[in-house]
Amino acid sequence: MSNNQFVIGGMLLMLLLFTLSACDGKNQDTIETKQINEATAVNKNVVVIPDGNIAVDKLLDPVKNDDVMVLIPAGEFIMGTDDVDASGKSQEFGFNEPLYLPEQPQRKVNLDAYYIDKYEVSNAQFKAYLHGVGLYSDAQIQSVVSRLKMEQDNLPVRSIIWRMASEYCLFVGKRLPTEAEWEKAARGTDGREYPWGNEWNPDYVNAGQGEFDLTPVGSFEAGKSFYGLYDMGGNVMEWTADWFEAYPGAEYKSPNYGQKHRVARGGSWGGVGHYVIPHYFRASYRFNFLPEMALNDVGFRCAKDA
Predict the structure, then answer these.
(1) Quick check: helix, strand or coil at residue 296?
(2) 88-104: string of b/e by CB count within 10 Å (b at 16+)?
(3) What is the pLDDT along the chain (306 residues), one digit of tens a residue?
(4) What would you measure as the largest C-alpha separation in the chain, in angstroms?
(5) pTM, whole model, 2 decimals?
(6) CA gap 103, 132 in Å, rounded
(7) CA distance 198 to 84
(8) Are 118 and 67 in contact (CB under 8 A)?
(9) Based on the number of CB atoms within 10 Å of its own CB, is 256 exposed (0-12), middle (13-18) or buried (19 or more)?
(10) If you ran DSSP here, which 8-state letter would residue 157 be given?
(11) Pick the CATH number of 74-306 from 3.40.1190.20, 3.40.50.300, 1.10.510.10, 3.90.1580.10
(12) Which are the contacts of 29, defined by CB distance < 8 A and separation ≥ 6?
């Protein structure tokens, strides 16, 4: 392991700590490290990653884990929606994006076969990655585990910026799923509204009601998706590989389109503004966040080519 790799690795770990500290509303001076000066705080929730990428192809062998992947067969599925906000809820509640429009037009998409994780990446898996990657000291890892509340192994990992989620997937021989891959794995070939079917059921998902935080991955058997994946509708939202762009043939033009925001899919335990709004747990809904944001209800799962 080169000195440069160790420095870059240490900076990424410190950036995780710094971002979470900012999200908690604490002053950045509470992070006692000179490395944090390499990052520039844009606002209390965002940090800018310094230049320099970890040479993923030169890392140690992938960590051994017992995760399970599901084969999604090649073929067409229905992506997006043609629904409209006839009730005017977008204006009534002042949502960041109008309801349904970023998901239009609905169309058929043909995908090659691929594999995708049956479960969200857990704390145990991410801690194994931090140890196995060979870039971080034990003290750095313990600091991150404590700050990100990663002590319970079977909870999904969260507060991970997009770049570290991507690097984890690459390290274990996988990648982040595309939007289309995520949506097909969630709703199958019948165009269902939610991963489990077309009717909202709060008992099928950790959407925040009755739960005050994360639940262990795979806790909601009845909420499994068309292909048998767990937590596609709740627990944590999940990063995908794609930028937030307009779909082909779309008329709506979001100010957030372009290579600025990455797409996250699935609802979360935090609900939306402390309310459980079923619209946000639909399989076609597109969240979008700056990739440098580390949110306590955003995690990820990985995919790979078949």
Answers:
(1) coil
(2) eeeeeeebebebbbbbb
(3) 444 443 345 445 545 544 444 444 333 222 222 222 222 222 222 222 222 333 333 333 333 444 589 999 999 999 999 998 766 666 555 567 888 999 999 999 999 999 999 999 999 999 999 998 888 899 999 998 998 889 999 999 999 999 999 999 999 999 999 999 999 999 999 999 999 999 999 899 888 766 568 889 999 999 999 999 999 998 999 999 999 999 999 999 999 999 999 999 998 887 554 455 888 899 999 999 999 999 989 999 999 999
(4) 59
(5) 0.79
(6) 39
(7) 17
(8) yes
(9) middle
(10) P
(11) 3.90.1580.10
(12) none
Residues 18/49, Cβ–Cβ less than 8 Å: no
The domain locations on the chain are 74-306
Angle between helices 162-171 and 3-23 (to 10 degrees): 140
Rounded-to-integer distance, Cα 234 and Cα 282, Å: 10
